[in-house]
Amino acid sequence: MPKNIKVSDIMVKDVACATLPGSRDEVLEILKAKRVSGVPVLKDGKLVGIVSRSNLLQNPEEEQLALLMTRDPVSISEDKDITDAARLIVQHNIRRLPVVEDGKLKGLLTVADIVGALAELNLTDHVGQYSSKKSVPVWSENPLNVVARIMELANVKAVPVLSSELELVGIISDRDIISASIIEDSVEMSDMSNGPDDDHWTWESVRDTMSIYYSVSRIRVPNVLAKDVMITNLVKASYISGVSECALKMKRNRIDQIPIVNANQKFLGLLKDRDLLKSIIDL
Length: 283
Description:
This protein is of the alpha+beta class. The protein contains eleven helices and 13 strands.
């Protein structure tokens, strides 16, 4: 159990933020440029929400940041222990904790920051007890938009990709999908009738209509296959790998998950970075 590691010791102080009023396009640009999965949202210098990749993918046609963001996010103070932070992250199934004092944003603590701290400790517990036994694999020939929908329905951030021979050939995360996605603008039309169905002056149901044209902007997942986007240079681990060993692999390779394989390299499950947090909290 790590002792005397405070939130202030490992939090990020120079935080990329979005502000209200703001747009989806601005957030998308920050996520891609900074290679982060979410950012705090400020209004008049105070924290009012969090917007993440999931918010964007689940609401592809929404442009207003105020309607995309998650309001009143769970937060923490900088003098708390990282075990307190880990407990909040696991309990609320989130990936980041704004560090707040009197409503003002002092920093941001992410799962990756805690995992980085675990990498420096000598935690030898086997990761098999913490890894998820359930995973949602996809086929390498699946269209990417189908993969994105599967991830949304399964409420997962990453999926293993299998070949036709059932071999693990890659991983796709929501980061990969956002990086490949584009903003698509289109003009759509809606016809509105000027007369009601019981209008006595309507002959043979022919009515004057008024066409309304309006623009729609949405996030579009490109028409490519899973194999075109997946990460193929995989870092793997076994059930008996140690917590700090896997944490170090995640830190060095800047990844959020590691496939668990057996001695024959057969895929057994996916170890997520958030799973490692369970090693330092009492569940």
